[in-house]
Amino acid sequence: MNPTITSHATPATAAPGVLVILGASGDLTKRLLVPALYNLACDGLLPEGFAVVGMARRPLSSEEFRGQLGRDLRTFTTRREFDADRWEWLESRIHYVSGDFADGAAYRRLADKVREVGVESGAAGNTLLYLAISPELFEAVNGHLDEAGFTRFDGRRAIVVEKPFGKDLDSAIALNRALLARWREEEIYRIDHYLGKETVQNLLAFRMANGIFAPLWNADHIDHIQISAAETVGVETRGEYYDKTGVVRDMLQNHLLQMLAYVCMEPPESLDPNAVRDAKSRLLAAVRPLDRSAVERECVRGQYGPGRKADGGVAVGYREEPKVDPRSDTETYAALTLHLDNDRWRGMPVYLRSGKSLWKRGTEIVVEFKPGATGPAMGEPNRLIFHIQPTQGVEIRMQAKRPGPVFSLQPAGMRFDYAETFEASRGTGYEVLLYSGLNGDPTLFSRTDFVETAWRIVQPALDVWRTTPADDFPNYPAGSWGPRAAHELLERSGHLWHECLTRDVLARGPLFRAAPPLLLANLLLAFRPLAVAAGDVVITRGAVEDEMYFVCSGRLAVGDAADRSVGEIGAGEFCGEMALLYRQPRSATVRAVEPSDLLVLDGTAFRRILADFPGFEAELRRISAVRSERSAGVSRGIPG
Ligand code: BG6
Fold first, then answer.
1. Ligand 1 nearest-atom number relative to CA 245
2. Could you give the residue numbers annotated as active site?
3. Position 636 confidence tier, pLDDT thresholds 50, 70, 90
4. Contact 526, 549 (CB under 8 A)
5. Is the separation of the CB atoms in 369 and 381 below 8 Å?
6. Domains delineated in the chain
7. Are 637 and 627 in contact (CB under 8 A)?
8. Are 338 and 251 in contact (CB under 8 A)?
9. Distance CA 176, CA 31 (A)
10. Of 221, 338, 359, nearest in space to 290 by CA
């Protein structure tokens, strides 16, 4: 099995064609489609024979439409410099037809315009119809397009359907039927914008082109896989859409299952679109169906309550967001365990999680190897981490010998960083989707079987949750790592969510703001995540323990000998350092006042880091001294 991967340095321009955008005055067009077309034009990837025809309700002339797009492009372009010549080139190819989506005559006018523009611009014979419209209109618009003759246009033609593709399994099947009644499967391009991300496409490249991992890519060597997509944003202005949707429909059914398919599918026979899509669909079909008890045992839902934004500002809870039902049970967070019943993966769990209003933005795939899979079991297991966004790269976590005469180990990382390796301007992710669409290449679009199988996987969770009230909602504060139950889900199988820390997240804590990069790099690898519930004791007065704690989110209360609260420790602060610095028993008890997310530094790593970074030790000692003085007046102080 050795699929051919082309290594051409300069890709050819896309095939000539007319792109028809239905919903051309909407957000998607101005934020993503036009900036993506402009990027393709700047990179010389659009052919001379290219035209865009937009249709929307607003009565505009083509001139006015171009002017509006030009102004919006200056706001939404992903390029630093504006290339007026390239925009002029693109703009001259843009046309507009105004019409109501319910009016059959409007589609006939559109069809005439597309024919006329196609002939004039040399783009005839290839028509890509993009539904940038509200999903409720998909079926009706599809019918009108057929009646106006688009399904019988000369040459190649295709319809691009944005997500959400259905709101559940039944509606997705119905939508597929409606589309397939008028188009052939290979003419239907269902968009999942994650497939436009370089780092998601790189999952395929990584597996296909780097044979060293192939022998390890199975349940004999891999302990488990975690796929996480965390967002710091809440639902903001999208309450109306989101409250009917929730994170399972919005993120898991599509984006996360696409990533799962790329990571776990059998290597396709070739890079032929059908071979890749067959392999992905077969993988999804191997996911063990969830039944009610699996949903109750292995799926966790969450909804954010009031808390903190990533920048420290106050964040409202989901139920207080505009256009959200104040009693809403919609989940803004979900974590699922899936099992793959095929020869390669039998017995190995895959954990998926995604949520809004979390502590950091980050999509990562962590492949955790079994201890000893690649050598004698020493220290932490090896991990292969795909950083999808915003950090983009691939990293291998391993153990390395520390410099010096003593044989001791330290976690280390080996990284490939996109930004350090490639000179590429940041795109919108839609460039490759439009380019593939014009070229008639469906590889990056979802096929009927994939979409329906993906719905089949998540539908039981949606069904169980719809009929069971979420009594504990809201169950995680905005700005945290998510609900405690999601951590317990992994702990039950002896696992931990791997929280990929980044320097910016650490730099939110005053102690680390000015820390040298090497110290931060050491800390990033040394921290262990610990999520605690309200009331949990983190430190017990008098105990001899060997850890210190950094508070990522939440609040801890410090109690004196009589268990009276004598102070609080909040996000960005730390505790437990004195016992380590002065090798003494804990001087106070510390309890979580609310659900809190902590980063734990073990004594061994603590001592190693202090020995390597004397400046850090001096700063910790200075802060501890100030703290003990401050607290001495009140009682016997901040815990150590
Ligand atoms: C969209 C969802 O599909 O993906 C949004 O509707 C979500 O709710 C977005 O924020 C995430 O995309 P990205 O590219 O920012 O990870």
1. 6
2. 255
3. very low
4. no
5. yes
6. 17-162 (3.40.50.720), 196-429+439-491 (3.30.360.10), 503-633 (2.60.120.10)
7. yes
8. no
9. 27
10. 338
List, edge to edge, every strand of the sheet that includes 383-389: 299-302, 333-339, 349-355, 222-230, 362-369, 383-389, 393-401, 409-417
- Residue 231 Cβ < 6 Å to ligand 1: yes
For residue 276, report the distance from its CA to the centre of ligand 1, in Å: 24
Alpha-carbon distances, residue 359 vs 118, 230, 525, 570 (angstroms): 49, 8, 18, 14
- pLDDT in the model for residue 635: 46
Instruction: Evaluate whether 337 touches 298 at the Cβ level (below 8 Å).
Output: yes
**pLDDT of amino acid 374:** 52
Predicted confidence at residue 377, as pLDDT, reads 55
Q: Are 129 and 86 in contact (CB under 8 A)?
A: no
Q: By C-alpha distance, which of 253, 235, 247 is closest to 332?
A: 247
* pLDDT for residue 3 is more than 70: no
Which of 195, 251, 254, 387 gets mutated to test ligand 1 (max ligand atoms within 8 A of its CB)?
251
In this structure, how many other beta carbons lie within 10 angstroms of the beta carbon of residue 1?
9
Between the CA of 398 and the centroid of ligand 1 the distance, in Å, is 32
Residue with tokens 């239907």: 188
Peptide bond into 267 cis (omega under 30): no
CA of 134 to the centre of ligand 1 (A): 16
Check pLDDT > 70 for residue 551. Answer: yes
In this structure, which residue's CA is closest to atom 14 in ligand 1?
194
Q: What is the pLDDT of residues 453-492, one digit of tens each?
A: 999 999 999 999 999 999 999 999 999 999 999 999 999 9
Residues of the chain above pLDDT 90, percent: 76
Beta carbons within 8 Å of 275's beta carbon, 6+ residues apart:
3, 268, 269
364 CB within 6 A, ligand 1: no
Q: Take atom 15 of ligand 1 and give the residue whose Cα is closest.
A: 231
Residue 195 structure tokens: 């497939």
Q: Work out the angle between the directed axes of helices 104-121 and 138-147 (0-180°, nearest 10).
A: 60
Amino acid at 189: Y
Alpha carbons within 13 angstroms on the beta-carbon side of residue 471 total 1
Extract the tokens encoding 482. 């998510």
Q: Per residue in 206-242, pLDDT tens?
A: 998 999 999 999 999 999 999 999 999 999 899 999 9
- Structure-token pair, residue 428: 């919108």
Q: Is the pLDDT of residue 637 over 50?
A: no
Distance from residue 426's CA to the centre of ligand 1 (Å): 17
Give 20's strand partners: 53, 129
How far apart are alpha carbons 453 and 278 in whole angstroms?
12
Angle separating helix axes 257-264 and 198-209, nearest 10 degrees: 20
Among 173, 95, 199, 187, residue whose Cα is nearest residue 145? 187
User: Across residues 586-607, what is the average pLDDT?
Assistant: 92
Residue 250 Cβ < 6 Å to ligand 1? yes
Whether 198 is in the pocket of ligand 1, judged by its Cβ within 6 Å, is: no
